[in-house]
Amino acid sequence: SSTWTCITHLMLPSLRAGATTQSPCCLLGGCRVELVSSKGKQLRSFTLKECGTKAAAAGGPNETRGMFRAHLLEQLADMLPDDVIRYNSCVTAVTTAQGKPQLQLPNGEVISCDVLVGADGANSLVAQHLGLPATNYAGYMAYRGVASFSDGLPLPQDTIRQMFGAGVRAGMYPINDKDAYWYICFNAQEGAPRPVDAADCVAEALAAVDGWSWGIQQAVNNTDPDSISRAAIRDRWTRGSFGQGCITLVGDAAHPMTPNLGQGGCTALEDAVILARQLAPLLSANSNGNNTRKGAVDTAAV
To answer: Facing residues of 163 across strands?
Structure first.
């Protein structure tokens, strides 16, 4: 896949390895997709190899790999100098002064940048600064988590399972032979009351799939409640160029999308590789002084 090509390009060796218990990545070899109903009926089952003709035409092959997002972030962070990442620094405003982007922090500090790349998610403050329209609520909420199964997974390790009910969808796939990613999407009015704590989130997720089989309730119960995420699903059709001068966007900040194709994080990685290819030659060839570097960045197609 193009996303795995990006990871290979970034030289992340531990992610390229195969997966067993607690390893960071799993290649679902002859991956099978199961489409099932909430009432226990299998609707369709097929392998990715059956999609081979279209995949080859698109530059295939099709493949599915599961990994922990935390492992990916750790690998990316390890490639940087120790003093580059600054944690717990919420940005409250984005401005421009003398042609340079500036970030305002809650303590009043202002950080001046040569280049600003907004990777701050669907509700991006940088996207707002660039004048992009607000995201659109897709009409449903999503719970997501990673369940651990000491006695074995509730589905074959080479299988992606998607479940369909009335106004509710769910699914899961293995990350390794003990852990599985899962999700539950359910229709909801925008602005509906939120659960007050982690226990209420678990209760709401279980209620959405009440009476379902296929291992989805077991997955919710086998997940640390504090690690379960709940989010309103939003998207925006971003057309044409959106960067301005030395400010641009990547990932959900640029093109927030629904999770139906599982391409949000994948596309963000592809964004990062393309942007790095644009910026790296400019920054390395013009590293003798800030003014020269700034002029080079101004000419980049970001």
So the answer is: 36, 170
